[in-house]
């Protein structure tokens, strides 16, 4: 008789426990989700910007940093309170037939407002080219004379002043060289091919004329006027 109330009591105690145990299972999944929201820091900007200091029409690196979708690194620059370092003269391509040359350069590691070219001809006369904005890395020299020798320098300026020109250049062997990777260089325009042909024709003509006159003198004039000795010999 005691067995059935006891069994009922047991059932009453255990049954509510069974449904109570089920809600525990979803709670376990909830706990796992708590690990997911991790603090996501942006990656460090260790990619260099797509900036080439020798590329023509290159936007300043700081503009690339401002405009770009991702952060990038720029090369360090000298203080804007100081005049810029000299640019580096690059390739100078001479088109002798047209009397012009295309001058390339690389930006210094300094803030630059604008560039210009300086050109000295053989007589030491200086010409200043037009001001070019900071995106320029290439300019053209015109009116170069065939066979002419020139010195060209790239100049840069900002609010604080102008870049330096190396003082080493000048007439004579002492000033014959420029430091490598500097802003200046010598450029010698080869004579036009036509000029060479003209010169060759000129020299040939002169030689031919000389030969002719020598022959004419030998065969005609000398016989007419005679040598000082022969007529004397004939008389005797
Ligand atoms: C620089 O000059 C070029 C050519 O004249 C021009 O296209 C460019 O917009 C100028 N850039 C700036 C920043 O003034």
TrEMBL record:
The record places domain Fibronectin type-III at 83-175
Q: Where are the transmembrane segments?
A: 196-220
Q: SUPFAM superfamilies under this entry?
A: Fibronectin type III
Has the keyword Signal been applied to this entry?
yes
Organism of derivation = Carlito syrichta (Philippine tarsier)
Gene this chain is encoded by = LRRN4CL
Keyword list, A-Z: Membrane, Signal, Transmembrane, Transmembrane helix
**Coiled coil location:** none
What is the name of this protein? LRRN4 C-terminal-like protein
Domain of life, per UniProt, equals Eukaryota
Query: What are the top taxonomic ranks of the organism?
Result: Eukaryota, Metazoa, Chordata, Craniata, Vertebrata
Q: Which residues form the signal peptide?
A: 1-21
């Amino acid at each position: 008789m005691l067995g059935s109330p006891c069994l009922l009591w047991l059932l009453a105690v255990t049954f509510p426990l069974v449904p109570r145990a089920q809600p525990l299972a979803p709670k376990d999944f909830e706990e796992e989700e708590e690990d997911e929201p991790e603090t996501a820091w942006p990656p460090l900007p260790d990619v260099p910007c797509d900036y080439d200091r020798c590329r023509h029409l290159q936007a300043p690196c700081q503009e690339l940093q401002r405009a770009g979708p991702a952060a990038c690194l720029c090369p360090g620059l000298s203080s804007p309170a100081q005049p810029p370092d000299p640019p580096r003269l690059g390739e100078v391509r001479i088109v002798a037939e047209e009397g012009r040359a295309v001058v390339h350069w690389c930006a210094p590691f300094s803030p630059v407002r604008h560039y210009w070219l300086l050109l000295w001809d053989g007589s030491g006369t200086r010409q200043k080219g037009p001001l070019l904005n900071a995106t320029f890395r290439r300019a053209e020299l015109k009116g170069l004379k065939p066979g002419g020798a020139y010195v060209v320098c790239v100049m840069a300026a900002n609010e604080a002043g102008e870049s330096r020109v190396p003082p080493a250049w000048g007439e004579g062997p002492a000033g014959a060289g420029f430091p490598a990777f500097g802003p200046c260089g010598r450029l010698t325009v080869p004579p036009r091919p036509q000029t060479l042909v003209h010169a060759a024709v000129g020299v040939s003509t002169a030689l031919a004329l000389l030969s002719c006159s020598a022959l004419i003198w030998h065969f005609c004039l000398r016989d007419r006027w005679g040598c000082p000795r022969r007529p004397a010999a004939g008389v005797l």
